Amino acid sequence: MRWTVFHRWIFNFNSQPSIPYLRRNLPSEAIRSPCWCIKNGGLVNIWCDPWIPCLPTFCPTIKPNALLPWGTDYVKDLIDSDRGCWKEADIRMFFDTPSASFILATPLLRGPGEDLL
pTM here? Predict the structure, then answer.
């Protein structure tokens, strides 16, 4: 299923679920813990800040032996700012499969402004 965060609520793209529906279908941590909503990614640290709601730690796991470019610390480093989308090839190269899948499924909020918590 694909989920999106809108005004700090998590919705299924196919319907607008009720709270009981969310509790049955999402990990309890995703409902209890706030995650960052990504706009430009400039405020959110990849490794420390909760930003991926479907992962138990809310942060990605790097692949064994993967070496990220120096200075890749913020979510903005994973976003193609010209096209306004994720750098899919880089994400699949550096992160394990579950992390990469959930990052790529995380919507980028449109419009001006910074990330929201």
Answer: 0.69
In contact, 1 and 12? CB cutoff 8 Å: yes
- Residue (of 18, 79, 13, 19) closest to 44 by Cα position: 79
pLDDT of 20 over the 60 cut: no
* DSSP labels, the chain: --EEEETTEEEETTB---HHHHHHHS-HHHHHS--PBPSS-SS-BTTTS---TTSTTSS--BPTT--PPTT--BGGGGEETTTTEE-HHHHHHHB-HHHHHHHHHSPPPPSSS--B-
The predicted-structure confidence for 59-92, as pLDDT tens digits, reads as follows: 999 998 888 788 889 999 999 989 989 999 999 9
